[in-house]
Specification:
Helix content: 55-70%
Low-confidence stretches: 183-195
Structural class: mainly alpha
Distance between the termini: 55 Å
Radius of gyration: 23 Å
Number of helices: 15
Strand content: under 5%
Number of strands: 0
Shape: globular
Mean pLDDT: 83
């Protein structure tokens, strides 16, 4: 008989049970309630926007996989998560063609350019959001009121705005069609009712703060998936309980924002909002739970995770307070992603048994 074959492999020898696809599927499960609440809050415009962005990311992923001669990468569901997250960061009345562009950019520049899943330096959904923030500044800051009457039977006028067209041009036509269908009693009504200010914009430009309970439960205007801080926390808790999210990241992000906001509030309570308003308003909760915690763009060292989260929270409040825009969490997370390699280098633990290097040795 021949000698038995001994197969030697490098570590790790014990593999964790969840696969990448399983983790991604659970993230999708956690995002579904947020998408459903967005549809309930803003109606069919939010629904078609989510579908459009999701289809855009999936088709772009499939196209680049085919161009590269690789097998389809749709099975890992990472493109679906990018599409869902991106759609939830957009205004519910965002024109559909712009949403499709955002989905394409998120996959093409935010993911494929870096080599695909596991190699991207920045969160792909935020790359797509940053692009449309720069390319379409008016559309990205045009908001629709929550729980508007008729939101399940008529679209927000800007939804079907075509390139080189203004939303007002199309909204008159939509109002006429709605009147012919018997949905509106007065054709030609002004479309000003479709505009609204987010709590952050109301504070930034008018000095008006919103009730914390309304922010917690989602009874406010905002992006499709950022309104209900409580629902976001519940969905994030599901991933934490399944051990598919490092709870220290969102906790440190929120802690960094709270500490910074508290210091500013104590310094000048007239000009700065209270810390609870800072935590529950805007996209901070969504960004802290579902975007800052992206496994690829976060440090792996325990101290690095803490520094990473605190910096994102700090940057968010600083940009909100001193920047020209009311929101800053998107840029804060992208800055945190960019600093991740440096944070990991600085916080790398010393190898057991080795001597601590001096500054000259480094």
């Amino acid at each position: 008989m021949g000698q038995p074959i001994v197969e030697i492999r490098t570590s790790p020898h014990i593999h964790s049970s969840p696969t990448v696809a399983q983790i991604m599927h659970n993230v999708i499960y956690a995002l579904i309630p947020l998408a459903a609440f967005a549809v309930y809050q803003f109606g069919i415009s939010a629904l078609v926007l989510i579908i459009t962005v999701l289809v855009s990311t999936l088709l772009t992923e499939m196209m680049f996989a085919r161009l590269a001669g690789r097998a389809s990468t749709l099975v890992d569901s990472s493109a679906a998560i990018t599409g869902l997250l991106l759609a939830l960061t957009l205004p519910p009345g965002f024109p559909l063609w712009m949403g499709a562009v955002a989905g394409f950019i998120a996959i093409a520049l935010g993911k494929t350019l870096f080599g695909g899943i596991g190699f991207n330096l920045f969160n792909p959904a935020l790359i797509g959001r940053a692009f449309v923030q720069a390319a379409f500044p008016v559309a990205i800051t045009t908001w629709s009121p929550a729980f508007a009457p008729g939101r399940f039977v008529e679209f927000i006028p800007s939804t079907f705005t075509l390139p080189l067209m203004r939303p007002d041009d199309l909204s008159l036509w939509i109002e006429k069609i709605n009147w012919l269908r018997g949905l509106n009693a007065n054709p030609g009504e002004t479309v000003d009712a479709f505009s609204g200010a987010t709590p952050l914009a109301a504070w930034k430009f008018d000095g008006i703060t919103t009730n914390s309970m309304d922010l917690l439960t989602g009874m406010v205007t905002g992006s499709s998936g950022e309104s209900s801080a409580l629902l976001i926390l519940l969905c994030g808790s599901y991933l934490v309980m399944r051990r598919m999210m490092d709870w220290r990241i969102p906790a440190s992000v929120l802690a960094g924002a709270f500490i910074t906001a508290l210091m500013l509030y104590m310094f000048d309570s007239e000009s700065n909002p209270d810390p609870l308003f800072v935590l529950f308003s805007g996209g901070l909760m969504l960004g802290a739970v579902f975007m800052a915690s992206d496994m690829v763009g976060t440090p792996v060292t325990p101290l690095g995770v803490l520094i990473y989260g605190l910096l994102i929270g700090f940057f968010t409040v600083i940009i909100r307070t001193f920047g020209g825009l009311p929101e800053g969490v998107m840029y804060a997370i992208l800055l945190g992603n960019a600093l991740t390699p440096l944070i990991e280098y600085v916080t790398q633990p010393r190898v057991y048994g080795s001597k601590k290097q001096t500054g000259a040795a480094r």
